[in-house]
């Protein structure tokens, strides 16, 4: 039989709970000055959670303490507004969940699961522990947002050049370590200046958004799309050889060509030129992107609206 339990923890009331929890579980006369187990865990947890600002890491440390002290088998964190979701351990039958807010500000939803039903005392301890997560969680969310916005192109909601440089270095390392192929596409809109000149910059922006969204729909969830600047985009295809990269490139080219995009009821046609490369052994990130860029320019010279390998 499964059991569920739901709650909302507000930052300020949780702070209250935290102090109550500590007082409640502390013995009247602290024997030899030793704290009770809950208070000891709480103290360690509070210190531990301050050691990182990484959202994933903070939640992982929190889960490990709960797994150890309350035999929690699984934990899921979701923050729909920030499109962040992560899971730890194994999901089990008995669940309890908390919507965490601070003065009306939503900090996410936490769900815990266990093979054995939670007792009242365990739920109380769990809520006390959640109290110690609130400040670190709030700080980690703020940090996560700052890092994400520094890596995001706000117009097209794709990664920016900085994000691309980091991702490319990471993927090159992974491809070397796992001996998997890594391919790259450079995608550039043809005669984009004419769209701007004819319809205005604001419509040009809409065209860029439409192009990014259309390209995104041609990709697997593991592929990533970045805007390097202007109307130039790049796609990172991990574990993909040149034959597969060519198929993806052609799919993007055709999808953009067939895209229904209108300004004031007037259809605008757009095409793209693409370069596609697979990384050679020993090739650096810089050489890879330069080679792909050159191929994209060759596609332009050869008449545009085509893929050059
Ligand atoms: N609307 C809009 N236009 C931009 C943005 N960034 C760059 N551009 C414009 O993109 C155009 C790029 O023009 P060009 O580099 O000549 O390239 P093109 O017209 O696409 O021609 P080819 O690449 O040779 O096919 C310029 O007019 C830029 O002003 C942006 O964020 N929004």
From TrEMBL:
Entry GO terms, CC: plasma membrane
Domain GGDEF: 180-309
Named cofactor requirement(s): Mg(2+)
GO biological process, one term: negative regulation of bacterial-type flagellum-dependent cell motility
Catalytic activity: 2 GTP = 3',3'-c-di-GMP + 2 diphosphate
Subcellular location: Cell inner membrane
GO molecular function, one term: diguanylate cyclase activity
Enzyme Commission number(s): 2.7.7.65
Chain positions covered by the region annotation Disordered: 1-35
SMART domains: GGDEF
NCBIfam families per the UniProt record, alphabetical: GGDEF
Name of this chain's protein: diguanylate cyclase
Protein species of origin: Halopseudomonas xinjiangensis
Lineage, highest ranks first: Bacteria, Pseudomonadati, Pseudomonadota, Gammaproteobacteria, Pseudomonadales
